[in-house]
């Protein structure tokens, strides 16, 4: 997340809108507290990108078309007994979705 915030801030993007489903980690107290603290820090300093999290309505898969594809992709990408490196994961996801690996992901020194 820090990398995305740095890139958006460098480009002068003041607000990044995120559309989230109702996954428990999206609604967790820890995430809500972090978002609140981050946005307060951006507001008080006048520097950075604020984050606006919008929850999709419950049981509305047509608004989140990646979900049906992602469930099948996860089965093709993940290995239950192995933790994948960032490079392995990004390569496998790119292959499943038949998309190129993004240039900033290829050079994993720039991603944390």
Strand order of the largest sheet: 1-2
- Note the run of SSEs as H and E: HEHHEHHH
Q: Count the strands?
A: 2
Structural class: mainly alpha
Descriptive notes:
The protein has 112 residues and is mainly alpha-helical. The chain has 2 domains: 1-58, no CATH class; 65-112, no CATH class. It has 6 helices and 2 strands; from the N terminus they run αβααβααα. It has helices spanning 2-10, 24-27, 29-45, 66-77, 86-96, 103-106, and strands at 15-20, 50-55. A two-stranded parallel ribbon has the order 1-2. Helix 4 (66-77) packs across helix 5 (86-96). The N and C termini lie close together (9 Å). The model has no long low-confidence stretch (mean pLDDT 85).
Report a brief summary of the structure.
The protein is 51% helix and 11% strand. It is mainly alpha-helical.
Output the keywords.
single chain, mainly alpha, 6 helices, 2 strands
Can you lay out the helices and strands and say which pair or pack?
Layout: H1 2-10, E1 15-20, H2 24-27, H3 29-45, E2 50-55, H4 66-77, H5 86-96, H6 103-106
Parallel strand pairs: 1-2
Helix pairs in contact: 4-5
């Amino acid at each position: 997340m820090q990398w995305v915030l740095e890139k958006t801030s460098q480009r002068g993007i003041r607000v990044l809108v995120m559309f989230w489903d109702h996954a428990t980690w999206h609604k967790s107290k820890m995430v809500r507290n972090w978002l609140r603290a981050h946005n307060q820090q951006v507001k008080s300093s006048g520097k950075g990108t604020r984050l606006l999290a919008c929850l999709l309505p419950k049981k509305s898969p047509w608004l989140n078309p990646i979900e049906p594809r992602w469930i099948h992709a996860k089965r093709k990408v993940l290995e239950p007994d192995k933790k994948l490196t960032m490079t392995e994961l990004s390569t496998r996801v790119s292959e499943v979705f038949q998309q190129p690996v993004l240039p900033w992901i290829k050079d994993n020194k720039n991603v944390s």
